[in-house]
Amino acid sequence: MVVKAHMKLVCPVMLNFKLFWISQLLILNLEAEIRALQLDSADLKDNVQESAPVPVEQQATEDHDQEILLPVHNPAKEKAAQENAAKEEAEEEAEANKKRHLNAVFIGHVDAGKSTIGGQILFLSGQVDDRQIQKYEKEAKDKSRESWYMAYIMDTNEEERAKGKTVEVGRAHFETESTRFTLLDAPGHKSYVPNMISGASQADIGVLVISARKGEFETGFEKGGQTREHVQLAKTLGVCKLVVVVNKMDDPTVNWSKERYDAIEQKIVPFLKSSAYNTKKDVIFLPISGLMGVNMDKRMDRNVCPWYSGPSFFEVLDSIEVPPRDNGPFRMPIIDKFKDMGTVVMGKVESGSIKEGDSLIIMPNKEPVKVVAIYCDEDKVKRAGPGENLRVRITGIEDEDILSGFVISSTVKPVPAVTEFVAQLQIIGLPEKAVLTAGYKAILHIHAVVEECEIMELISQIDMETREPIKNKGVRFVKNGAGVVCRIQVTNSICVEKFSDFPQLGRFTLRTEGKTVAVGKVTALSGASSSA
Ligand code: GTP
Ligand code: MG
Known about the structure:
Blueprint lengths: L1 H23 L5 H7 L5 H9 L5 H6 L2 H5 L6 H23 L2 E8 L6 H11 L5 H13 L15 H6 L6 E6 L3 E7 L7 H8 L4 E7 L4 H6 L4 H11 L4 E7 L10 H17 L8 E5 L25 H7 L11 E9 L3 E6 L5 E2 L3 E5 L3 E10 L2 E3 L1 E2 L4 E7 L11 E3 L7 E11 L8 E2 L3 E6 L2 E15 L4 E2 L7 E2 L4 E13 L11 E6 L2 E11 L7
Parallel strand pairs: 1-3, 1-4, 4-5, 5-6
Antiparallel strand pairs: 2-3, 7-8, 7-15, 8-14, 9-13, 10-11, 10-15, 11-12, 11-14, 16-22, 16-24, 17-21, 18-19, 18-23, 19-20, 19-22, 23-24
This protein binds guanosine-5'-triphosphate and magnesium ion (MG).
Magnesium ion binds next to helix 7.
């Protein structure tokens, strides 16, 4: 690329020079004549001094293109070009050799210890020092929340610290031996489930935190506790692997009891199975203490817990395997945006890759934009691939013209935008005796989109055994546990894909009055507009 740009600059000057050269060749004192011209371009001087004379007839017959393609020797520029090419190659190699990247969402019932574990991870990985911990201890004590000091590392705003509850999804970065992680600390409180959905929709793996403390496990796992809802949402949102950490094992009511740990595992496994997790392949359990940092970065101290000899939390995270990422056309749903020397958007790359200087399009409003800078974790990078959580500075659009749920996508194959689609729904949270009919209104959550929607038509019932629609069998209403094919409408155009083409942008949840009513997948798009 650098070489090409250099050629473009030099060639028009070369052409003038060649015409002059042809006319002057007869005088034979070529070098002297050219020097007499006192060309101030170092390029041209160098070229002339190093080029061998070319016979006149040959030059006369050469066409324009051939003339401008004559080799241009410019040692200084060539060296710079070589250095640049080597630098680009090195950057590409560094990119290729970079540790893999995974997004891990921490989910589970309120107060299970998600933020404490997140804070402990940052402490153990040296991102927070003893002095800062002392500062948090004092602040937590002043707020009568002594034991929350570790959670304060993740819970950064005033409201979160005062109440001891996460509200916004916290973000942090850490590395294990083989993997760079983006940690997404979701809130456990039921009022903030929409934020948890946004966190889980960006995740590759989930860390389900369960409190082993007496009474807390029971409340979290009962109906109405967030453990079940979080697991079902995570599965629907594409979180394919779960690490179940049984936390607070140090608590005096538990005291690293194997019986308590086994009882919890035995209750959770059947539930995970019923939520379509393969508990042999896709789930791993381990006991920890997030507050004490036990069985986290180092293996369990046998004096603390003699019966556990398995891997530590970091080892589990390190060895977790996830399916390969999609390298199709570029898609990055925007989860947030802000102003910082231009417009900056945040999101996870769901497919394809992005480079500085790329021309892309923001859908659904079809705004062409240019990529000015890319930030991955804290670093500025030249390019980034699928799965990365990025901040991207763009030009061509003001931040007020962007809404979360918009998708930056490739201009060649933009993401479809629709106001209506057909979907398969599974009803999971209707109140008892309630039914779902055409005309039902709910909040649709699909990737980073949150939009009001209406069910326009129930098309056919789904056989829950085979998961196939029952043909020629109309349906007027459905109850909890049932499946149905239906047509869903939204007021504003949204970016979605068919689940079969692109699961990340084709799976969704419907919620009303703070409860998850149904989960679903998009099976057909009506009147999609994807042309840029
Ligand atoms: P939400 O964000 O509100 O959903 O809560 P959370 O899951 O992030 O819980 P958080 O980390 O705020 O911790 C809640 C309480 O549990 C705090 O008082 C912590 O000190 C305590 N806690 C967390 N982990 C442990 C642990 O390993 N052992 C003990 N004994 N207490 C813990
Ligand atoms: Mg929290």
